[in-house]
Amino acid sequence: GVARFDPETETWTNFLGKGRGYARGVAIRVDTAADGSLAAATVFVAHHTWGGCPSNQGQSRHVSVYDALTLTELPFLDLGAEVAPVGVAIDAAGKLWTVNQCDSTATRLDPMTGAVEGSWGVGLNPYTYSDMTGYALKTITAIKGEYRHVFVGWPEGQTSWDSVDVQALLPGAES
User: Fold this and answer.
1) Quick one: which of 40, 59, 82, 92 has the most CB atoms within 10 Å?
2) Residue 68 — left, alpha, or beta (φ > 0 → left; ψ -120 to 50 → alpha)?
3) How far from chain centre, in Å, is Cα 72?
4) Residue 160: which H helix or E strand, with range?
5) Using one digit for the tens of pLDDT, what is the confidence trace for 124-146?
6) 142: number of CA atoms within 13 Å, CB side?
7) Is the pLDDT of residue 44 over 80?
8) In sequence order, what are the residues at sequence separation of 6 or more whose Cβ sits closer than 8 angstroms to the Cβ of residue 146?
9) Percent above pLDDT 70 for the chain
10) Which residue has the higher pLDDT, 59 or 80?
11) What residue spans of the chain are helical by DSSP H?
12) Order of strands across the sheet with 85-90?
């Protein structure tokens, strides 16, 4: 299943649509307002029935969708065939990707319309739950950071710094 932890109350809330197979990969899309505050968040859950390929249960083709703030179930996404998605991820353009074991593909969908935009072969029986696009790292797990460094001056006497020149590569910044 899938659960949400509330750190203020230290409680878990379980949620997941029934009848779509086992919950496998999970991805969260975060939308922010102009001021940087959280405007919305959507949870995507891939489903696989473990019933073989293709599944005789007709359930290895879905991605459940939830409003992360209210845990309201939204209309699920249908990949159109028994592909058995095991991983899901959001890319930099906001598109949803699934990694599918039964047909050894990765599929891109428009999460707003549910339209399948394409599928591409990726090798035999792919398997991932990871942040395969880097979206979670960029938007959820490492939004802000800090770096400190102590520069040691001249060991024999007082050092008077004239200037400090810093060069850095920052995620999402133009090079």
Assistant:
1) 82
2) alpha
3) 19
4) none
5) 988 887 778 877 777 776 556 67
6) 12
7) yes
8) none
9) 86
10) 80
11) 135-136
12) 85-90, 96-100, 105-109, 116-121
Tokens of 124: 């035999």
Distance CA(87)–CA(133), nearest Å, equals 11
Query: How many beta carbons lie within 10 A of that of residue 114, not counting itself?
Result: 15
Residue with tokens 């459940």: 64
The answer to whether 60 touches 24, Cβ cutoff 8 Å, is no
**Do the strands 116-121 and 105-109 form a parallel or antiparallel pair, or are they unpaired?**
antiparallel
Counting every residue written for the chain, the total comes to: 175
d(C-alpha 60, C-alpha 99), whole Å: 12
Q: What's the Cα-to-Cα distance from 142 to each of 68, 135, 171, rounded to whole Å?
A: 19, 10, 10
What is the amino acid identity at position 170?
Answer: L
What pTM, to 2 d.p., does this model score? Answer: 0.74
